[in-house]
Write a structure and sequence with these properties.
- It is a single chain.
- The protein starts with a strand and ends with a strand.
- It is of the alpha/beta class.
- Helix 3 runs parallel beside helix 5.
- It has a six-stranded mixed beta sheet with strand order 6-7-8-3-9-10. The chain has a four-stranded antiparallel beta sheet with strand order 2-1-4-5, covered by helices on one side.
- It is built from seven helices and ten strands.
- It has helices at 49-56, 79-89, 105-115, 120-133, 149-160, 179-196, 207-212; strands spanning 5-18, 21-34, 38-41, 64-69, 72-73, 90-93, 167-171, 199-203, 215-220, 223-226.
- The longest helix has 18 residues, at 179-196.
- The protein binds adenosine-5'-diphosphate and magnesium ion.
- Adenosine-5'-diphosphate binds at residues 16, 18, 23, 25, 43, 45-51.
Length: 227
């Protein structure tokens, strides 16, 4: 397997000012994620999981440190270049699916591809293939409201990887699902990662799912620690 480093965090710091006090969330976090690897980020609420994912996903700047995405050192780059890297290299999945309600599952997955310039036909073919990988090929014509929670999240995952990013960042993607559905969604996600060589960092409170990932990290005193 190709084991190049897709995400590298070095000495990442993030502090929030709250009135008189400074809240230090990340205090020199170091981390490396390789292609083909799924890593669980397990830590109590308020410890900085979302903050870490936002920094890793180039949605926020760290107050210190460096974020490397597929070999690009991102801190010195213009917002324009960061946005371009985010669009081409990174997919996001959130706890809530954020699918467009007026469009079908298939169209939701076609959208980012067409924005990236792919012809409609090719976008539709890839969307259908991704729905198959997520084991919901038969649900392509349905709108999000007509899908179950587990199906909605599988569409959201398919959309996140529609433009073949190197890195998938997921913030409690199964947090709204019952354990059995969460397990089923994770099965599909895992199959996708294994066949595509994607690297995935997944924040979760679900210890059962965390055990099934390749490695587990937590946030302790503002640093990332394997456990
Ligand atoms: P988690 O995802 O692990 O629950 P977060 O990364 O959302 O944690 O938040 C970590 C801490 O940082 C929390 O105490 C939160 O209140 C604080 N925080 C997050 N974002 C901001 C912000 N924009 N301004 C101030 N404080 C914030
Ligand atoms: Mg969070």
């Amino acid at each position: 397997m190709n084991r190049n480093v897709v995400l590298k965090l070095s000495g990442v710091e993030r502090h929030y000012g709250q009135g008189e006090t400074l809240l230090s969330i990340l205090k020199g976090a170091d981390f490396a994620l390789h292609s083909g690897e799924i890593v669980a980020l397990v830590a109590p609420s308020g410890t900085g999981k979302s903050t870490l994912l936002h920094v890793a996903g180039l949605l926020e700047h760290p107050d210190a440190g460096e974020v490397m995405i597929n070999g690009h050192a991102c801190e010195g780059l213009s917002d324009e270049k960061r946005t371009a890297i985010r669009r081409s290299e990174i997919g996001f999945v959130y706890q809530f699916h954020h699918l467009l309600p007026e469009f079908s599952a298939l169209e939701n997955i076609m959208m980012p591809q067409m924005i990236a310039g792919l012809p409609r036909k090719e976008a539709a073919e890839r969307a259908a293939q991704l729905l198959d990988y997520m084991r919901i090929g038969h649900r392509g014509t349905h709108r999000p409201a007509e899908l179950s929670g587990g199906e909605q999240q599988r569409v959201a995952i398919a959309r996140a990887v529609a433009n073949a990013p190197a890195l998938l960042l997921a913030d409690e993607p199964t947090g709204n699902l019952d354990p059995e559905t969460a397990s089923y969604v994770f099965d599909a996600l895992e199959a996708l990662v294994r066949q595509s060589g994607l690297a995935a960092l997944i924040a979760t409170h679900n210890h059962e799912l965390a055990r099934r990932m390749d490695r587990r990290v937590t946030i302790s005193e503002g640093k990332l620690v394997e456990f």
